[in-house]
Specification:
Structural class: alpha+beta
Number of domains: 2
Number of strands: 14
Radius of gyration: 24 Å
Helix content: 10-25%
Distance between the termini: 38 Å
Strand content: 15-25%
Largest sheet: 10 strands, mixed
Number of helices: 8
Length: 291
Amino acid sequence: MINEAKFGAVEDDILGSSDGGESDINKKGTIDKVHEAVEIPKTESEIVMGKVEDINRNGIAYSSVDFDWHEAKTESGLESLKLIFREGLRGMTTLPHLDIFYKNLKESTKNKEEWVKLIKAKHPLGVFFNIVGKASDIKKGEDGLFHRRNKETGDWDDFEPQPTEIGSSPYVSKDSITILFDTSSLNESQTNSNDLENRGDMETRTFYSSSLHDDTEPDSEYGFVASYRIPPRLFTGIVVKGEYENRVNEIIETMKMVYGENFERLLPIYDVKGNLIYPQKIDHGDISKSF
């Protein structure tokens, strides 16, 4: 059996004490150079697992990429996702005839140029999203599930409760990919975006409440709006729903196609119930216990 105390003392003599002092051997010049410990590279799974979290955590921002249902069965949805991984979530205008970003993503170069022109011309471009814990019409009940208020009747029991807020959101459509991201590096404006004379006047790297009322917990229909782009470095995860739950391997391949060997950019993938799908399969209940 190794005497760990004795082994530690010998190690200190050779490498120097843990308080940074130099060892006697080094002082005498007997050892000219001490090899530093070699750091073993983390695996893809270890890196991505380090980003895993409970998607019900208050403060997680989420924006659903609204692909048409028929696109879910073609490559166009993943072509759109490739562009998002590469360039981020670009702001979309509320004016239909200028909605150029998701309408024809295969012309990505043209779209980017047109998008930049619109920003310079101060068109109202913004990324619309919600933040877990801030939607006034979605609340966690005593049963541990999330209930959504019917805005027509005011009733909280008209819709089937869900295990996650994201799963309860009416704006996470039947076949969709939702991007999770971190807003901590963005400024939260105290000005409601609707109070601006022109949404094109929104400050960069800033997000605003998009509610029709002056509140910090807007209805999920309005949520928040950020100017003018959410860059990929702020992405923290992906939530898949419907058809895209069957295309997780393709989504992973798309990420790797864009990011190559830069595993630090790969994102964990969940379903709308909060279960982890990639890089490992873990139930939401087990994840929530860990946090």
